[in-house]
């Protein structure tokens, strides 16, 4: 389980889209640690989007929800490598969304740390996004049973293999002293990032590069494309 002495907020986001209709959705979950207490879990329907558009909407809407709660420091996790790396300024993407949206939002925070995780470590946001797409309307999770489910699937096991944990790229915004970019991340985030890199290296050694793929869900042909897909 995660270390009990870590205190802070984590925003997880996700996005999905139907390839046939370009209808999509995104989900945003704010969790407070320790305990993975769900502060907010909201889903939003989207129109005329690709999966990358939906992921970016999830990031933006999540940061808006965080800023509305006067939270100044946030760790953001998502399973879209493209969105994480674009927001970090590591790659350039051409999306039909203003590239000024994220830089404008991040000015509201003292610090933002962005971490890419595998989808199996983003199950809570994935569940919220999938259900939102099925409902076709915005909603907020308030049912105690569903909130408990989100808390349970959000918990990330600690590493046990003894391998050293290297720091993933981070982004720290205004009012942070020079050099903070290389400061260690909280233990939970180091765990997720290290596991992600380890799994990715293993998969890369065993498999040829994959093209776009689709996941079939109960509500139709929902597209959750591979992270190597060309950006539209």
From TrEMBL:
<feature type="compositionally biased region" description="Basic and acidic residues">
    <location>
        <begin position="216"/>
        <end position="232"/>
    </location>
</feature>
<dbReference type="InterPro" id="IPR053151">
    <property type="entry name" value="RNase_H-like"/>
</dbReference>
<dbReference type="InterPro" id="IPR012337">
    <property type="entry name" value="RNaseH-like_sf"/>
</dbReference>
<dbReference type="InterPro" id="IPR036397">
    <property type="entry name" value="RNaseH_sf"/>
</dbReference>
<feature type="domain" description="RNase H type-1">
    <location>
        <begin position="13"/>
        <end position="130"/>
    </location>
</feature>
<feature type="compositionally biased region" description="Basic and acidic residues">
    <location>
        <begin position="158"/>
        <end position="174"/>
    </location>
</feature>
<dbReference type="Pfam" id="PF13456">
    <property type="entry name" value="RVT_3"/>
</dbReference>
<dbReference type="GO" id="GO:0003676">
    <property type="term" value="F:nucleic acid binding"/>
</dbReference>
<dbReference type="InterPro" id="IPR002156">
    <property type="entry name" value="RNaseH_domain"/>
</dbReference>
<feature type="region of interest" description="Disordered">
    <location>
        <begin position="158"/>
        <end position="232"/>
    </location>
</feature>
<dbReference type="GO" id="GO:0004523">
    <property type="term" value="F:RNA-DNA hybrid ribonuclease activity"/>
</dbReference>
<protein>
    <recommendedName>
        <fullName>RNase H type-1 domain-containing protein</fullName>
    </recommendedName>
</protein>
